[in-house]
């Protein structure tokens, strides 16, 4: 099934379309990232519901994060997270060395400043997924060298 | 392997759900950004165009279609190969003009609207799946076929079926016959 191409292209068009509209309109860049992130949030909520319909109950927070890193990431991005680190106090860092949404962009320093635009949706996706599993969090991302990126998840204790 | 055997099937379905849900979120965001339905429709069409001009490469790489020799063959390929490959449905094709350059694709099952119950009342003329029109138009343009693609009927707006009209525009043939 050629679904990955469809989602990749749609995502790129969304990012391009939103930023183009912002340039012609108010010129506010910050709003675009928020919009992308909130779209990702809604999608993540819906997706995790469909996904975990038949899976067993999760034992603890770490179990949930491992699920996100393995099954969730594999279904959405066709590979697992390469590295998961935690300080066991609510902060997790997910490292993906070859992030699918960035591989289409040239791997040098040229577009490094534009890379975060392509991560906003995925941050929302993770936050939405965790939210419907009962975890409130803040997710940020950073790119140090293309196409590797790190997602930092900070669990909020309620 | 402790995975149940039906997992791969489910994963495909979830990939499809990802696309459908993302599309829904996109339309919802556009509805917040633009007040007029026409603006949302044209935005979706433009995005679809951008996707179509790139998707055609992926389509030709993954499918075995030979060069189409007529408009009706092209319409058949779109319905039976492309739609099947990307959306998992096969619309039926019918020719609706004497000149043979207008075709209708009738979809009785549209996966893009899987999670949509109904359009809100104030968005009566929103063309929810307008992205598809742009995609088809963009893809055809990249194989040098100009076409106008529109939605004639839409189940979400109360019609019986969803019908997409593809009208090929005959270009002047004189350039091909220019001899030096």
From TrEMBL, chain A:
Localization, UniProt: Endoplasmic reticulum; Golgi apparatus, cis-Golgi network
Assigned keywords, A-Z: Endoplasmic reticulum, Golgi apparatus, Neurogenesis
One Pfam family named in its UniProt record: TRAPP
Domain of life according to the entry: Eukaryota
InterPro entries reported in the protein's UniProt record: NO_sig/Golgi_transp_ligand-bd (IPR024096), TRAPP_component (IPR007194), TRAPPC6/Trs33 (IPR037992)
GO biological process per UniProt: endoplasmic reticulum to Golgi vesicle-mediated transport; nervous system development
Signal peptide range in chain numbering: none
GO CC entries: cis-Golgi network; endoplasmic reticulum; trans-Golgi network; TRAPP complex
Family annotation (SUPFAM superfamilies): Ligand-binding domain in the NO signalling and Golgi transport
Annotated family: Belongs to the TRAPP small subunits family. BET3 subfamily.
Function of the protein: Component of a transport protein particle (TRAPP) complex that may function in specific stages of inter-organelle traffic. Specifically involved in the early development of neural circuitry, likely by controlling the frequency and amplitude of intracellular calcium transients implicated in the regulation of neuron differentiation and survival.
Record-given protein name: Trafficking protein particle complex subunit 6B
Organism: Caloenas nicobarica (Nicobar pigeon)
Gene from which the chain derives: Trappc6b
TrEMBL record, chain B:
A GO cellular component entry from the record: Golgi apparatus
Main localization (coarse): endoplasmic reticulum
Example GO biological process: Golgi vesicle transport
Positions in coiled-coil regions: none
Subcellular location: Endoplasmic reticulum; Golgi apparatus, cis-Golgi network
N-terminal signal peptide: none
InterPro entries named among the record's database cross-references: Bet3 (IPR016721), NO_sig/Golgi_transp_ligand-bd (IPR024096), TRAPP_component (IPR007194)
Sorted UniProt keywords: Endoplasmic reticulum, ER-Golgi transport, Golgi apparatus, Lipoprotein, Palmitate, Transport
CDD domains (UniProt xref): TRAPPC3_bet3
Self-association and partners: Homodimer. Component of the multisubunit TRAPP (transport protein particle) complex, which includes at least TRAPPC2, TRAPPC2L, TRAPPC3, TRAPPC3L, TRAPPC4, TRAPPC5, TRAPPC8, TRAPPC9, TRAPPC10, TRAPPC11 and TRAPPC12.
Function of the protein: May play a role in vesicular transport from endoplasmic reticulum to Golgi.
Family, similarity comment: Belongs to the TRAPP small subunits family. BET3 subfamily.
Name the record gives this protein: Trafficking protein particle complex subunit 3-like protein
Lineage: Eukaryota, Metazoa, Chordata, Craniata, Vertebrata
